[in-house]
Specification:
It is built from 11 helices and 14 strands. By secondary structure, the protein is an alpha/beta fold. Helix 2 links the parallel strand 1 and strand 2.
């Protein structure tokens, strides 16, 4: 009996030892994957970059394309000189917070974000974690985003973070509305108050409308599913036109806004080119490919060793103007594409010609 007892104890001890060894091996492998950047066997030496965007809208997609192109130009090629993992919250704030927690956990050397919600969620998670170096772009108003960037002194921001703002040209688009129809007074807007980027544009538009003797007719939404109903409500209040700002929630459903407005004989003005391909009358906003390239240059500087604390957060909007003349005949009121608009436009759609810059066309 004693022999059997000790033999069982020996086997039990051996089993426990094997389990401990296996656990240690798994732990070491996990640590190695974290330190090695999950780079598919490329070795632990290349930088690990998390690329985060909030939703799949063309403006953000274009910005990502521009940034990646510029990073390649600077020698940062995914799978060769860097390891990049892409994250997309698809407009869901819960998913965005989960992504932010993951990318700030220590598995990445750098984080590159696009959009205001991505900036905010990552900055919040990063504040209480290891403070991973963070570069951001495609943000309407970084100074009002609540992430510690000073509006007056742009050099004051968290030392591990830098980036650039791209405020939409709100005043210019209101001027074009007046130029195309001087009688227009009531401008419809659907927006999500939870987006600080959208709030910044709306507050500016309210102020400008007062100065310009215009009236902003607003409808608020919490998600893209509510855009159709809010648009119809705004249209029922007798607006002269609809304006789609840089609101991500609404832009994710911009086809609904454009279709409803077209059915009502009301033109749509959009701050995110190239909605003219979907039926808007005029787009005026940032050329996000160009903005992305500028952001890619800034990120490459940081990846190469430049201290983000030394890079001020400035605003840059490379504007692009597009118009769609084919919409005019379907409108209930008279709107005119003026000679000044034609001269300045970078692209247009007429009854006989479609001349839209290639990089703004949908991907095939």
């Amino acid at each position: 009996m004693v022999h059997v007892f000790f033999e069982g104890l020996r086997r039990l001890s051996l089993g426990i030892a094997l389990l401990a060894i296996a656990g240690t091996v798994l732990l070491l492998l996990d640590l190695q994957s974290r330190k090695g950047g999950r780079n598919s066997g490329k070795g632990p030496s290349i930088p690990r970059i998390a690329f985060v965007q909030h939703a799949s809208i063309k403006a953000i997609d274009d910005g990502r394309v521009g940034a990646i192109e510029q990073l390649k130009q600077r020698g940062y090629v995914d799978g060769e000189t860097v390891f990049i993992k892409y994250f997309n919250a698809e407009g869901d704030i819960g998913t965005a917070n989960a992504i932010a927690k993951e990318v700030t956990s220590g598995s990445y050397d750098f984080i590159l974000t696009m959009s205001t919600p991505s900036l905010q969620t990552v900055a919040s998670a990063n504040k209480s974690s290891g403070q991973v170096t963070h570069v951001f772009g495609l943000v309407t108003d970084p100074y009002s985003a609540g992430v510690g960037i000073d509006r007056e002194d742009h050099s004051k921001h968290p030392p591990y973070m830098t980036g650039m703002g791209s405020m939409q040209p709100v005043e210019s688009i209101l001027r074009y509305i007046q130029e195309m129809r001087p009688e227009a007074r009531r401008i419809g807007l659907v927006w999500n108050p939870a987006e600080s980027n959208s709030a910044a544009q709306t507050l500016l538009a309210r102020s400008l409308c007062k100065e310009m003797s215009l009236e902003l007719i607003e409808g608020s939404v919490e998600n893209s599913a509510a855009v159709q109903e809010a648009t119809n409500s705004v249209l029922s209040r007798g607006v002269d036109c609809m304006w789609i700002s840089g609101d991500i929630t609404v832009s994710s459903a911009n086809t609904l806004v454009i279709r409803s407005a077209n059915n009502a004989g009301v033109p749509v003005f959009c701050s995110l080119p190239s909605a003219v391909l979907l039926g808007s009358t005029l787009d005026l906003g940032a050329d996000y490919i160009s903005i992305g390239r500028t952001l890619g240059d800034m990120a490459a500087d940081v990846f190469g060793g430049k201290n983000p604390a030394d890079i001020p957060v400035e605003n840059r909007t490379d504007e692009i103007l597009l118009y769609n003349e084919t919409t005019l005949s379907k409108l209930k009121d008279r709107w005119t594409i003026t000679p000044a608009i034609r001269e300045r436009a970078s692209g247009w759609i007429t009854e006989t010609e479609k001349n839209i810059p290639a990089h703004l066309m949908p991907s095939k």
